[in-house]
Amino acid sequence: MNQGPPLSWVVGRGGLLGQHMQATLRQRAPMWSGTAAVPWGRVEAQVVLRRQAGEFLQAAANGPWQVVWAAGAGVTGADRAALAMEQSYLRATLEVLGAAPTPGAGAVFFASSAGAVYAGVSAPPYDENSPVRPLAPYGEAKLASERMLARWAAENGTPVFIGRIANLYGPGQNLAKAQGLISQICRAGLTGQPVSIFVPLDTLRDYIFAPDCAEMIADGLERLRSSANGAAGPVVVTKNLATLRPLTIGAILGETRRIFKRTPRVVLGASPAARFQARDLSLRSVVWPQLDRRALTPLPVGVSATLADLRRRLQDCGTAGPMPAVAPLPRLSGDHR
């Protein structure tokens, strides 16, 4: 069997995490892209994903392969029907990948949400041994997908890496979705439009720069392969992916104030969705601590990169049309798409 770099497929490469996974893996391994766009949000997406999974395995030609599942448009306030459809996409793809002639050659990463699964526990900081208790259907769906992957790995022997990701930020975030507090604050600073915040300013979250998270995932996939070699049973590794240095929303506003040289316009209010938000989602990690021993992008550098990307997009939209409307409620419990 070919033991070279694995052929990589990023599902959801148009999202925030997917974009940076593409860029990171392209430097390490051959990449595979689907032959047709996936019609996300429609039942037909299952058919397209099944076909693409089969084509991907054919392209791997019994050699090593890896899939990064970074797809999904769900947010904390998403309804159960939309979340169930997203789970059906994952299930359809796994059914095909599970039939690979050499399942031991593969590996799968799944982007879960730390904030969503730990939201109701009320005993921070949370590590991988902490209990899980979602407050919203979004978190329930993430946990259900994690369990689906664990069963799937046990059935066919393909190792799985589940990343419970903290609040992801960086260039390329979709501002039309109700997520991305840092991106929304940056946009407010550029346009003068206010950003609405419906949680207390002492709310604690862990904000990780998307390129840093992508590097951690890529390193984790390499470690997963090493762990799976010679393992007696299925290998399923769940790890919190975070800076492990939480910040308050007030601190984020203070940092952006220093960068902008003025205070972004912020409107504090109330929303029914705020009940899904825990006050403190500080994170720790006791799994694969070697992955955490790295130099991470300082917040001012990450915010500046996010700001530069938004400035470019605003300039481009000046000739191509308006940007999407600002989302009314930045999602705090795990912004990763």
Secondary-structure topology with pairs:
Elements: E1 7-11, H1 16-26, E2 31-32, H2 44-60, E3 65-69, H3 80-97, E4 108-113, H4 114-118, H5 137-156, E5 160-165, E6 167-169, H6 181-191, E7 195-197, E8 204-205, E9 207-209, H7 210-228, E10 236-241, E11 247-248, H8 249-260, E12 266-268, H9 299-320
Task: Explain what you see.
This protein has 337 residues and is of the alpha/beta class. It contains nine helices and twelve strands. The protein folds into two domains: 196 residues, 3-Layer(aba) Sandwich (Rossmann fold), CATH 3.40.50.720; 95 residues, Alpha-Beta Complex (UDP-galactose 4-epimerase, domain 1). Strands 2-1-3-4-5-10 form a six-stranded parallel beta sheet, sandwiched between helices. A two-stranded parallel sheet has the order 6-9. Helix 3 links the parallel strand 3 and strand 4.
The figure for the number of domains is: 2
Biggest pleated sheet:
6 strands, parallel
CATH architecture grouping of the largest domain: 3-Layer(aba) Sandwich
What proportion strand?
A: 5-15%
The CATH superfamily label of the largest domain reads NAD(P)-binding Rossmann-like Domain
CATH class of the largest domain: Alpha Beta
CATH fold naming of the largest domain: Rossmann fold
Spatially, the strands of the biggest sheet line up as 2-1-3-4-5-10
